[in-house]
Design goal:
With 180 residues, the chain is of the alpha+beta class. 27% of the residues lie in helices and 38% in strands. Strands 5, 7, 8, 10 and 11 form a five-stranded mixed beta sheet that branches. It has a four-stranded antiparallel beta sheet with strand order 1-2-3-4. A hairpin with a 4-residue loop joins strand 3 and strand 4. The longest helix is centred in the N-terminal third of the chain and has 25 residues.
Length: 180
């Protein structure tokens, strides 16, 4: 084997390791506030004022970007530039989003036994037009209900949230109850 080929493989391997390390940092970060509070996890969504972090224990924490140490605030800014679809998402509005059209989630046939009950809670991101752009399960009593809840949620539409008279992306929580 040639020395040149071995060196190229080593360089490629080092580049791959560096890329994986960078990806890991973007997925699991440590964010520190100026009061010393530490948030371990990954950014779920953000706007120019605040960031919501999905914590490593599965919960969520929202904090003002102005309250983060400079390195953590810089990480949030980089993330927002790389994730425009999840940037500019608000949880507090002047006008809250309101349902225009909804659909009921259908209990999957394999779970339709008499007396069956279940619940799926979703974190939902609405775009500036009120359309569901993302729906993710936050809690579920049964894995087989999750797809039915997400499918139903994608058929909903809303009058958009507004901040300062402008339509904005919004984060809301919706729960679906299943009964047979």
């Amino acid at each position: 084997m040639s020395t040149m080929g071995t060196q190229l493989r080593r360089v490629a391997f080092a580049a791959l390791l560096f890329s994986l390390a960078s990806l890991t940092r973007l997925v699991a970060e440590t964010f520190v506030s100026t009061d010393g509070t530490v948030y371990e996890g990954s950014i779920d969504y953000a706007n120019e004022r605040e960031v919501t972090i999905k914590t490593s224990d599965g919960g969520y924490a929202t904090t003002a970007i102005a309250d983060l140490e400079s390195e953590s605030a810089f990480t949030v800014q980089r993330w927002m530039e790389a994730n425009p679809d999840l940037s500019g998402v608000y949880t507090v509005w002047d006008t809250k989003p309101s349902v225009v059209r909804s659909r009921t989630a259908v209990t999957p046939p394999q779970l339709a036994a008499p007396g069956f009950k279940g619940l799926v809670s979703l974190h939902v991101i609405l775009d500036e037009t009120g359309k569901v752009s993302r729906a993710a399960v936050s809690k579920s009593t049964h894995d087989d209900l999750e797809e039915a809840a997400i499918d139903a949620m994608r058929k909903w539409s809303f009058k958009p949230a507004q901040v300062a008279g402008k339509n904005v992306k919004a984060h809301i929580a919706i729960s679906f109850k299943f009964e047979a």
